[in-house]
């Protein structure tokens, strides 16, 4: 059960760090899957997952830092 303080933190910040929720091994597995997912998305020729307008402004190559609807991209995540 969450404490009132945890609920307030979540409402203010949009996330909550719950120590011990995952083992180190589980966290490592999820982290690797997230990296693998990003690699797969960046290699897919049909998916342009970067912000073209940002590249025009900064004159640098952009990269994918997040993914919407990740459940459609990875059964693990």
Tally of individual domains: 1
Structural class: mainly alpha
C-alpha Rg (nearest Å) = 17 Å
The residue-averaged pLDDT reads 82
**Count of discrete alpha- or pi-helical segments spanning 4 or more residues:** 3
Straight-line distance between termini: 24 Å
What is the H/E order?
HHH
Strand content: under 5%
- Please tell me what the overall shape is: extended
Low-confidence stretches are none
The tally of strands reads 0
Largest sheet: none
The percentage helix is 40-55%
Quick synopsis:
With 77 residues, the protein is mostly helical. The chain has helices at residues 4-13, 24-43, 52-58.
What does the model show?
- With 77 residues, this protein is an all-alpha fold.
- The chain has 3 helices and no strands.
- The chain is extended, with a radius of gyration of 17 Å.
- The two termini are 24 Å apart.
């Amino acid at each position: 059960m969450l404490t009132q303080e945890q609920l307030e933190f979540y409402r203010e910040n949009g996330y909550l760090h719950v120590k011990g929720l995952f083992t180190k091994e589980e966290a490592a597995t999820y982290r690797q899957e997230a990296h693998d997912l990003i690699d797969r998305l960046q290699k897919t020729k049909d998916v342009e997952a970067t912000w073209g307008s940002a590249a025009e402004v900064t004159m640098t190559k952009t990269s994918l830092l997040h993914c919407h609807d990740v459940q459609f991209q990875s059964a693990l995540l």
